[in-house]
Every structure is written in structure tokens, then in C-alpha cells.
Amino acid sequence: MKDLSPAFIATLAGLAAVLLWKLKRKSDLQKLPLPAASSWLWGHEKTIFEREPGHAFNEWTRNLGLTYRIKAAFWAPDVLVLSDPAGIGHILQDKIYDYHHSAVVRPRVARLLGKGLGWVEGEAEHRRMRRLVIPSLSSENIKAMAPDIRDTASRAVNDLVSEIQTLGDESVLNILQWTAKATLNVIGRVAFLYDFDGGKSEEAHRILNARRQGVSPIVKYAGFFTLMLLRRFPFLNDLPISSIQAQGIAKLTVQSGVAQEMVPPCVRRNKDLLHQSQGSYKDLLSRLLSAYAEGAMSHEELFEQISTFVISGHETTTHTLAFTIWQLARHPNVQARLRRELDTVSEEPSYEDFQSRLPYLDAVLKETLRLFPGLPYMERVATTPDVIPLREAVKLSDGRTVTEIPIETGQTVLIPIIAIHRQEAVWDSAEEFRPERWLMGLPPKEKLVTGWSHTLAFSDGPRNCIGFRLAIFQYKVILTSLMRKFTFSDTGAQVLLKISSSLQPWVAGSEDDGPSLPVHVHLT
Ligand code: HEM
Questions:
Q1: CB–CB of 338/291 below 8 Å?
Q2: Where in or outside the cell (predicted)?
Q3: Residue nearest to atom 41 of ligand 1 (CA)
Q4: Residue 201: CB partners within 8 Å, gap ≥ 6?
Q5: Which residues, other chains included, contact 404 with Cβ-Cβ below 8 Å and sequence gap of 6+?
Q6: In the chain, which end has fewer C-beta atoms inside a 10 angstrom radius, N or C?
Q7: Which strand ranges, in their side-by-side order, compose the sheet holding 171-174?
Q8: Which residues pair with 507 in a beta bridge?
Q9: Mutation test of ligand 1: which of 465, 501, 503, 504 has the most ligand atoms closer than 8 Å to its C-beta?
């Protein structure tokens, strides 16, 4: 055998040394600050689950700053936790198409809502879907929907009056169940021209019960363990594990129930015989059906979009309204001030009144969404290497101070929305419900994020909530109608917040009863 030349051996040795150095070299991400006390098995994730939503993140932000990393369960790579407004703006506004829903979030969105607008990835496909539905959710269109929204809301409120008259004054109500009926009714009527009969119809019951079943298992420890396993082993998504598959019951209920009624048989058989809205506004269903008729949407996608909008169109608004009523019950002064403001406008405020003449109502909504954002944590994964700019410099373990963090493809980024909304360094008495803060000077702009009203309640950028205008308008209409008929007072129940993809309230000691916000409801 021929001897290897010294030059060849030296080159090999050099290459090996470079390789070893590269392997040992830590990336800047691995030099980011790390909270103390992580579990060998669960990393920091069990601490996050066990504490009130956002609390662990706020403690870490206080100690480590706005950008740090945490250890993930089952030895998965570290997660970048980002509360820095510049970094968040960069991801959500400038680079959202390079940051996809993670392998644990995306299948969950498909199960919960459907493979519709909230699930799709890729700029071209996302923009196509968004363009299709946006005319139905524009401010002009929502203004045209106003009479129908008002009518639907007042029917639901009248149903509640009858219920309270039957139950007797001083009734304690899980207000979440009522708001769910009211908002499902609105989305049914204005988006799908479908009557859920004030949320009393058989179909409404089936959808709302299915959703409660889907939420219940996941907030318990078993649900947490399953979630952690899913993060590490995404193939488990397809196995028949009850706490996972239960999340999908509501979607399947919509697709096999109301969606069949919404898409008339003539359209299913012959696309030319298209049902068209006769109303004064562009309802969502007609837009979806037109796209289907033109061949721009498959039969499967049509049903996935319907379930997406029926569920996302009511659930978050349900919770926002219920959290407000619960807070009004606990803060009689806020309730009285809101009532005084509503007394200054006509019985049925116009679209314009809601825009400009009711600032305290607006402040109550903002304060509710600040403290109780429907999506408390957002998780995205980089699909390409990137450099994230930071407004607040961060000190790395090698002593350098940097204002940007390079990341690799596959990096998980967690934006702890609820913690950002409750940062003591930004918001005075951050944990308190104080709508007045929105009428006084806000914190300095550089400390705030750039989403709707300086919150991330509706996310931000090209993938922000497409339904936010409808959500805000129906919230204001329903709350105003309720305030005309009822007063609310506190029951003293201890309410715990937990996350089951969205923020869910539970009464301590009655976890098996499912999400609940009990409130005393009195007729005025
Ligand atoms: C107070 C009520 C609401 C809140 C707090 C809320 C919040 C959000 C948030 C945070 C996102 C971003 C989700 C993510 O990036 O993973 C989102 C997206 C979305 N929301 Fe809402 N939402 C509300 C009401 C509505 C309504 C009424 C509709 C339908 C009419 C709706 C339909 C959607 C859809 C389809 C998306 C996906 C948008 C996209 O990816 O382009 N939401 N919402």
C-alpha cells in the first residue's frame, strides 16, 4: 500500500479539528440566558403548565430580560422565548411566512378548526384564501351586517331574560354557556345565513357540547403529558388517544351537521345552481360557495373553511364577553361607569356610536383582551435561518452584549402573549382590571408591541385575526344589550385560568364540570 503524504495527513487533521471546533462551538442562541431550575425530563415546561398562565414567563423576564431560552421537555432543542417588541414585529409583520405553526400546533389547528385559513402555510396559498374571505369581514360589510347582528343579539338577550325570570332573580349562571350560544347565533346568521335559534337548536347544542368535551381533558396532567409527547413525537397526533382526538369532535360535528345544511344539495350536485346571498351584505358562505363553483376551492376545502369559521368565529368572542361580564361582576364601579356611559347614547347605538362615542366601552374591551387574550402563547418554527433584531440588548454567556440573535432552521420561538400583556415593567398594576388606563396616557411606545391597540390579542401582521372587526362589533352590541337588562355581581367562586390551546376559566374544586365563569345575574 502506498504511504500517505505528510501534506495529506496534515490536511485531514486540519479538517477534523475544524469539524470538532464547529461541533463544540455554541451558537448565540445557546448562549442566551436560561432560567434556573429546569427538570431533567420536563425542562421548564412543567413549571409553565403548573403556574398561572404567563406567571413563570413574567418572573423569568424580570430576572433575565425580554429574550431568553428555556429547556424543552424530553430533551428537545431549547425554545427561544421572545417578548421583545422589535423581535416580535420582525416575525409577525416582516417574516411571518418563514415562521410556520409548530409540529404540535398545526395538527391541533387542523383538529380543532379544520384545514382552513388558520392552518394553511405558504405565502401564495395563504394570500389566496385570505383574499377570498376578506370582503365579508371588512368594516363596510360589518356595518351593513349591523341590523342582523343587533337583532340576533337582542333575541339571545331576551332568551336570557326569560331564563332568569324562570330561575328567579339572584340566579347564578355559568355565563360562558350563555355567551357561547349568543355568539354562535351571530356568526351563524351573518356569516352563514344559518339560524341556530338563539343557540337553542339541536345543532347548537351538539357543537357547544362537543367543544366542551374537547377542552376538558387537556387541562389535566394527562393532557399536559400528552402535549409534551406530541411536541417530541408528532406522529402521535394520528393515534387514537382520547385527549387528543376529543379536540376534533366540534369540527366533525360542524362538518357532518350544519355544514351539510349550509351547502345546499343543488350546489353539491351541480355547481352551476349556486346559492347566492340575497342580503345587503356579502356573507361568507356565498363567497366560499362562489369559489367552489368557480373551481377555486375543492369540496373538502369548502367544508374545512366552514368549520374553521363557525368555530373560530364564535369561540374567542364567547370567552372575551364572558371574561368581561365576570370582571364587571367583580368591579361594581367599572360596571356603574360603563352603564352611565351607555345611558348617554340611544337604546340601540349605531355603528358610528360604537366607533367614537363610547370610549369607556372600548377601554373595557381592551382591558379584557389585555388580561385575558384568547391565544395566550404563540409558538412558531423558523423554516429558514434568520437574524432576529432586538430592541432590548441581551447579554450572552460569553460576555458579549448583542442586539440581534441569529437562529437556525427548525428553531422554535415562543411568544408569551399573556405575559407580555401583564408585564409590570410596562403596565402599572399589570394584574389589575383597570379599564381607565386606556383613557389615560399609555406606556411609552417603545415598550409596546405594534398589534391592535398595542396588544397581541389579535396577533399582528399578514396573519393577524381576520375576524377582529366582526368580533369587536358583536362584542359591543351584545354587551350593550346585556347591560340594558341586567346587573352582575360576584359569586366569590375561585376561578383558575388554564390553557387548552385557548385561555379557559375553571372553578377551583369543580374542574370536572368543565370551563366555567359563574356570575350572579339580576334583572334591572
Ligand atoms: C375576541 C375574539 C377573537 C380573538 C381574541 C381572536 C384572536 C385571534 C388570534 C390571536 C389569531 C392568530 C392565531 C395564530 O396566529 O395562531 C387569530 C386568527 C384567526 N382568527 Fe381570530 N380572534 C377572534 C375572533 C375571530 C372571529 C369573529 C373570526 C371569524 C369571523 C376569527 C377568525 C380567525 C381566523 C380565520 C384566523 C386565521 C387568520 C390567518 O391565519 O390568516 N377570529 N384570531
A1: no
A2: Membrane
A3: 463
A4: 195
A5: 387, 388, 389, 390
A6: N
A7: 171-174, 518-523, 486-489
A8: 495
A9: 465
192 is written with which cell numbers? Answer: 352563514
All domains of the chain in start order, with CATH:
31-523 (1.10.630.10)
Which residues, 6+ apart, have CB-to-CB distance to 86 below 8 Å?
A: 389, 390, 391
Residues 6+ apart with CB under 8 A from 285: 191, 192, 193, 194, 262, 275, 277, 306
Q: How far is the CA of 101 from the centre of ligand 1 (A)?
A: 14
Looking at the predicted structure, is the pLDDT value of residue 237 above 80?
no
Distance 130 CA to ligand 1 centre (A): 12
Residues in the chain: 524
**Which residue type, as a one-letter code, is found at position 427?**
W
pLDDT higher than threshold 80 for residue 217: no
211 three-state secondary structure = helix
Q: Which residue in 373, 360, 255 sits closest to 319, CA to CA?
A: 373
How far from chain centre, in Å, is Cα 337? Answer: 29
Pocket, ligand 1, Cβ cutoff 6 A: 117-118, 130, 308-309, 312-313, 316-317, 320, 374-375, 378, 457-459, 463, 465-467, 470-471
pTM: 0.92
pLDDT value at position 274?
54
Q: Is 266 annotated as a binding residue?
A: no
Whole-number pLDDT of residue 213 = 77
What does the alpha-carbon distance between residue 52 and residue 64 come to, in Å, rounded to a whole number?
19
Measured from the Cα of 309, ligand 1's closest atom is 29
What pLDDT digit, counting tens, does each position of 281-325 carry?
788 988 898 888 888 899 999 999 999 999 998 999 999 999 999
Q: How confident is the model at residue 38, as a pLDDT?
A: 82
Residue 103: per-residue pLDDT: 86
Residue 464 confidence (pLDDT)? 98
User: How crowded is residue 303: how many other Cβ atoms within 10 Å of its Cβ?
Assistant: 23
Of all protein residues, whose CA lies closest to atom 1 belonging to ligand 1? 317
Ligand 1, atom 29, lies closest to the CA of 313
Q: What b/e sequence results for 457-479 when a residue is b if at least 16 CB atoms lie within 10 Å of its CB, and e otherwise?
A: bbbbbebbbbbbbbbbbbbbbbb
